[in-house]
Amino acid sequence: MDPSCSQAPTPPVKLPSYKLTSRLTHPADSLIPLGAYAIGGPEFIIMAGPCSVEADPQMLGTAWDVKLAGAHIIRGGAFKPRSSPYSFQGLAEEGLKKLANARELTGLGIVTEVMDSSDVELVASYADILQVGARNAQNYSLLKRLGRINKPVLLKRGLMNTIEEFLNSAEYILAGGNSQVILCERGIRTFEPSTRNTLDLSAILTIKEKSHLPIIVDPSHATGKAHYVAPMSRAALAAGADGLMIEVHCDPTKALCDGDESLTSEQFKELMQNLQELAPHFGRRISTIAPTTALVAESL
Ligand code: PEP
Ligand code: MN
To answer: Which domain holds residue 153?
Structure first.
């Protein structure tokens, strides 16, 4: 070896703009504790439920269906970002109360979207995880506000965001003092119209290289088609995602929002059985739960 070469000083490592989010400042994977589990650990975390929180018995029925199939967290929007101002906008606090009721009865954690900084306190008083939707992924005042709470934030990738922009959005939350961020790849808008969005599965690999934060995949909003959800869920598991967010409705034909991409409870159950079998092949597990049928009967 050329001695002058071995004596050359190592150049200083140049940090990217997303410093705290970068693996260079935090080499180990971050784990986000959630009850008996941690997001980013060996358990492959499943968040499932309707697009929007709806009236009971649909909401509670779907919550029990996803719980008994093995999901960890119930999803459902009480504040809905809709393209048209005339579409159903969500049940607001009434919806948050329905989620809290479903949590109390089923034991599932709650993830739900917050659209506005002024609602952060309200949503945080009900939710276990606060979701930032794709449309708000670069709403920096909202991200800064979420940096000041002490609850996990599920940050979805913006419709047109590069991975660098996505990681910088996460940086806003970390820089505010909240390091509990879970990233979510939910497809990006491309020139391809055959799916609702284009699911960027390789983003999982890039993000795992560049960041220590856990990343889950939402195959429902990514594809917009219920029959694409199972294959893309398997692909996300195989590609190294830490979990999934899946839209499920006990009767998708009656869903107030996104029925076309929602799995029926039966389809979700089949998918969960399949993922439970596959997970160990990819170094993961999905714990099975004992059905609590007595409780089901009591609460419906
Ligand atoms: C949602 O998860 O309810 C949602 C609106 O998704 P996205 O922000 O990814 O479009
Ligand atoms: Mn939806």
So the answer is: 33-299
